[in-house]
Specification:
Chain lengths: 723, 387
């Protein structure tokens, strides 16, 4: 079946022409073997609690370990050498792969020449790739894929296009395979972070890449004006599903090696390389597919989405009844039911459409199963209802229970008349007692908890699993500080109920978000900073400015030179006064909260240290407030500080300390403080809870100011009288 | 067929086990799709299995082929199973021939010994008369000369089997042109022929007939075409080749078959798999065209190679129908709404009473007569679908 090429007609015509040009060379190079690198672990914790005990790539999707899909895809692409990189659970992945048909040493039937599991201490994708570069294993073009890829795409066309481009131009280093999601947003569409690709449709070149975050204040992509000048045509697309298939030349590894700070392939590497086009001249192209399937099960929501796609057979031929995985014996029956041998269904049970049942699973009388995947050797009791759920192997579900939109892992037991609500995750071996209700947000595990690198058993929590059950609610300490809003990924059901993503007033960039953010009221006082001025903030300016100032603060550098830099940045980005104030406020609060958190400094001392940097007072006075020092600007600056501190821990303490400090340094005047306080108080019920909480601690300071003023005015009066 | 080419290339150099696994994965991943390439790959593989076999008797060879065949059949039933059974039958025949020669040579004493149940040492007769043949070497009474005799016989059998396997392969490869060769007998000048989809055999059949006479062809299009995929040629190429041959070509949708049918003289379809009951699997939409033809009393001709005919009945044929991705029907919509089901069957069953004639590479047969071909081709011992 021939692939229809990308969007523009240009794509269709350009590629073959190029192919012909480099035709002879391509012919010569056809003999060269194709290599592939699988990132079996993407160094994230999105599948917790399941990944506490099993590596992500071995989690079953439609009763087949995820990595099998990836390996099948690579076998279909005639890849010769494969290098597998994994972070956590390396031994387990190694043991698993060595036992499969793929591992060349113990099976002459493997289609691969080599399959190597690379042991590494890498903590990120960047580390892994730099390690790969150091090992010198890659000799030619290679495919970079993730261990959770499910795809039936024949890579030949994209590969041929890539090779043609590469022979024509040495700088065409990478081809990204993207899937057009068509008219409607697809299930796999990343609901958390939306990638934005800026493409040149005439030659499929990727010009710019950014990620949009749902919590992001503004929905703007910042395109370099030069790009607009150089390219007559441009497509800005958010409808592309990034399936994580990259065709790379070895130069890609060299680039990774050069940039030590790159950690993730898209947000860092792709964005960085494209940004530095002027510098290194490397180009990255895309191949957009429209009529084949490719997707990653990269988080629980996409796991759900890809599982549904398998049930609906979009992944054909990678469907259970192809029996690709050794030892499977699925048959596709009427109504979309896939059954393995030895399934026992009672006479009165009702197996709905789009269901997969593994070997030796029993479904007792009166039970209803629909749109679900049930693993091997499971026992489903009487009158059980299972809907849109993923039940792995050896699970027992007691009579009269209901399971809806949940994942239940191996060997878990659900007692009689229990209810597993939508979104619940029940991990390995958990025993849930009878008559329990498992809430939708719960994640229950039995894994040993790691505390200061000592593993310890956690006693069962009877509130959650019942009197005789075992398991406790899993909480991830890292998650809260995780810079990618993990809350989006670690739940099975995408829900924004607990996150307020619609407000435009959360003016932090994605890296600063600590979920869950407070609900922000939209009814704001009219005299406050207008929303418009804020929503057109220039995100790139903000980011660069904050980074620059932070650097100065950290190194205790000189603010006079920083000021020059800052003003330059301001001019080049045409930033408004509001933006400048915001950037400065964010930089200082960030630094202070860092000092408080990392160096365990007192908030007052931290504020003193931050503002004590030489030239800082003048800088704030001149740049942030403006030379005339108008009251409105001062009030605005306080608001900026307050708003940023809402998201920080100890925000209230810091705000109090900062206010005091700025007053002492005579940067802000008492009138401004009082006006700010008055306006905030004036909001009453309409004020945001977070904002209110943050300014709570400052009340003492304001009271003191008020008293001082009263005294002042008393004195004035006295003076008047004396006059 | 790039996968087939690389497979055949590797077949000569790679270990056998690798080739078997590779073919199985190729079949499962649908990288080898068309009936013809499935058949060729299977036949080539089985020839290599025979050639590399270290067997010492026909029984051992049969077991070996059965084991490999079993694995292939699990990957893809239809034509692969037919070819495996053809090979099994062929080996049985070769062994029978040898035995007949031996029986003629053997003396009375030998036959007498068999009736008494004592194993023979100087003949291969025992190998085929007992289901679990006693090994001459195991008895410990064999002389070195007998041993070499057996080896020589086995080698001869091996060589004969490879040759016979090659014949099967050649027959399969020529089947399309053989079928096309019958075309002039069935298509007369100025007739109107109706066909469904763009099958390769039908194309060759019509083009062959066009050499003798000029006629009109009505091509019924079904959407989505790619569903009917694997044995089809590109629609535009199909129509163009017919037009270039000087035929009058009319394309219409499958809804138009009812209106067109009165003008039609014959309906020509191509089968994917044929059962011994005379029913067959055809492209999706084919049965409805055949139904219209039946209503109007027009003859329906189905083209198939003999290798497509199996002992399967209707239920077995229907269980072989593949279900593909819904993408070809609803497009790239990204998931179906909960109450929306898409049945993406890739073949459809055409019952025997809708078919008037099968044209195979061995000539024309009525559907009711196909069982004869089945019993000619396959041994009843191999009729078990799971071998």
């Amino acid at each position: 079946m021939s692939q229809k090429s990308g969007k523009g007609a240009g794509a269709g015509t350009k590629v073959p022409v190029k192919g012909k040009k480099g035709g002879k060379k391509v012919e010569d190079e056809r003999e060269e073997t194709l290599q592939a690198v699988i990132l079996a672990d993407s160094f994230e914790t999105r599948f917790n609690p399941f990944t506490l005990e099993t590596p992500r790539c071995l989690l079953p999707l439609a009763n087949t370990p995820l990595i099998e899909y990836t390996l099948e895809f690579l076998a279909m692409s005639s890849v010769a050498d494969i290098f597998v990189y994994c972070g956590a659970h390396t031994e387990e992945v190694e043991r698993y792969i060595q036992a499969t048909k793929w591992y060349p040493p113990n099976s002459i039937a493997s289609p691969f020449n080599t399959l190597e599991i690379v042991k590494t201490t890498a903590r990120s994708v960047g580390d892994a790739l730099r390690d790969l570069d150091a090992r010198d294993l890659i000799t030619g073009d290679f495919l970079l894929v993730h261990g959770d890829l499910v795809s039936n795409l024949p890579i030949d066309q994209a590969l041929a296009a890539h090779r043609a481009r590469r022979t024509a131009d040495k700088n065409a280093i990478m081809t990204i395979v993207l899937r057009d999601e068509g008219l409607e947003p697809q299930r796999e569409h990343s609901k958390g972070i939306a990638p934005v690709f800026v493409l040149d449709p005439t030659n499929n070149r990727c010009l710019h890449y950014e990620e949009m975050h749902p919590l992001q204040a503004n929905k703007y992509v910042n395109i370099d004006p030069d790009l607009v000048k150089e390219n007559t045509e441009m497509e800005i697309r958010t409808d592309l599903i990034d399936c994580g298939i990259d065709i790379c030349t070895p130069d890609v590894l060299a680039l990774w090696a050069e940039s030590f700070d790159y950690e993730v392939p898209r947000r860092h590497f792709l964005h960085g390389v494209l940004k530095d086009y002027e510098l290194n001249g490397k180009t990255i192209h895309t191949e957009i597919i429209e009529n084949r399937y490719a997707a990653r099960a990269s988080n629980l929501q996409s796991y759900d989405a890809v599982s549904k796609d398998v049930l609906e057979r979009w992944t054909f031929p990678f469907v259970p009844d192809s029996n690709l995985f050794a030892g499977q014996s699925y048959r596709y029956g009427k109504g979309g039911i896939c059954k393995e041998n030895g399934v026992v269904l009672s006479r009165t049970c009702n197996i709905g459409k789009r269901t997969i049942l593994g070997k030796d699973t029993r479904v007792e009388e009166g039970s209803k199963v629909s749109s679900s995947i049930i693993g091997r050797r499971c026992t489903i009791g009487k009158n059980v209802t299972i809907k849109e759920s993923y039940i792995w192997d050896d699970v027992t579900i007691g009579d009269g229970s209901t399971v809806e939109r949940a994942i239940i892992a191996n060997k878990a037991i659900v007692g009689q008349k229990s209810h597993i609500r939508p979104g619940a995750l029940v991990s390995y071996g958990v025993h849930i007692d009878g008559n329990q209700e498992v809430k939708g947000s719960s994640r229950i595990t039995r894994a040993k908890r790691r505390k200061n690198s000592i593993e310890e058993e956690v006693p069962p929590d009877p509130k959650i699993v019942g009197e005789t059950g075992s398991g406790y609610a899993f909480e991830d300490k890292d998650e809260v500080s995780d810079d990618e809003a993990t809350a989006f990924h670690s739940t099975l059901i995408y829900s924004t109920a607990h996150l307020n993503i619609s407000t435009e007033s959360i003016s932090t960039i994605s890296s600063e978000i600590s979920a869950p953010s407070p609900a922000t009221s939209r009814s704001r006082h009219s005299s406050f900073i207008s929303e418009d001025s804020e929503s057109c903030t220039n995100e790139a300016f903000h980011h660069d400015a904050v980074e620059g100032l932070l650097g100065t603060l950290r190194e205790n550098g000189d603010f006079d030179s920083a000021k020059l830099e800052f003003m330059g940045l301001r001019l080049s980005n045409n930033a408004t006064d509001q933006q400048i104030r915001r950037a400065i406020a964010v930089a200082f609060t960030k630094r202070i909260s860092q000092l408080v958190e990392n160096d365990k400094l007192d908030a007052t001392k931290a504020a003193a240290q931050a503002f004590g940097v030489s030239g800082a007072d003048r800088f704030i006075k001149n740049v942030a407030i403006g030379d005339d020092g108008s009251e409105a600007d001062q009030v605005d600056f306080i608001y900026r500080l307050q708003k940023d501190l809402v998201h920080r821990s100890n925000g209230a303490m810091i705000l109090a300390a900062v206010s005091q400090r700025l007053y002492q340094m005579e940067i802000l005047e008492e009138k401004a403080f009082l006006k700010w306080w008055g306006e905030s108080e004036g909001l009453g019920e309409g004020e945001d809870d977070g904002m209110k909480a943050v300014r709570g601690k400052t009340k003492v300071f304001i009271d003191w100011l008020e008293e001082a003023e009263e005294e002042d005015s008393d004195e004035d009066e006295d003076d008047d009288e004396s006059d | 067929m790039p996968y087939l080419d690389t497979f055949l290339k590797a077949l000569k150099t790679r270990p056998l086990e690798w080739s078997i696994e590779n073919l199985i994965s190729g079949l499962k991943r649908r990288q080898i799709r068309t009936t013809m390439s499935c058949v060729i790959a299977t036949a080539e593989l089985l020839i290599v299995v025979i050639a590399r076999s270290k067997m010492r008797s026909a029984e051992e060879l049969l077991i070996e082929i059965q084991e490999v065949g079993q694995r292939l059949i699990e990957a893809k039933e239809m034509v692969v199973g037919n070819i495996v059974r053809r090979f099994l039958r062929m080996i049985r025949d070769e062994a029978d021939e040898d035995r007949n020669d031996d029986v003629r040579d053997s003396n009375f004493a030998a036959s007498y010994a068999v009736t008494k149940g004592t194993p023979l040492q100087n003949s291969l007769f025992d190998l085929f008369s007992a289901s679990n043949p006693p090994q001459p070497t195991d008895t410990g009474r064999s002389s070195p000369q007998d041993q070499s005799n057996i080896n020589a016989d086995a080698e001869a059998l091996q060589a004969e089997a490879v040759d016979a396997g090659q014949e099967i392969l050649d027959e399969v490869k020529q089947s399309e042109s053989n079928i096309a060769g019958y075309a002039p007998e069935h298509i007369l000048p100025n007739e109107t022929i109706l066909t469904h989809c763009h099958n390769r055999i039908v194309q060759r059949f019509l083009l062959k007939a066009a050499e003798k006479s000029k006629f009109s062809v009505i091509v019924i299009e079904s959407h989505p075409n790619e569903l009917n995929g694997s044995d089809d040629v590109d629609a535009a190429a199909f129509l163009k080749s017919l037009a270039d041959a000087g035929l009058t070509v009319i394309s219409t949708t499958d809804g138009g078959s009812w209106a067109m049918m009165p003008k039609v003289d014959r309906v020509v379809l191509a089968a994917r798999a044929v059962g011994s009951n005379g029913g067959c699997l055809v492209s999706v939409g084919g049965p409805s065209v055949a139904g219209v033809a039946k209503f109007h009393g027009k003859p329906v001709i189905v083209l198939c190679g003999v290798h497509m005919i199996s002992s399967a009945d209707q239920i077995e044929l229907e269980s072989m129908i593949e279900h593909g991705s819904p993408e070809s029907i609803v497009g790239n919509t990204g998931g179906l709404p909960p109450n929306h089901d898409v049945e993406t069957i890739l073949q459809q069953y055409l019952p025997p009473h809708r078919i008037n004639l099968y044209i195979t590479n061995l000539g024309g047969y009525a559907p009711s007569y196909l069982y004869r071909l089945v019993s000619d081709q396959y041994s009843s011992k191999d009729s078990n679908p799971r071998l």
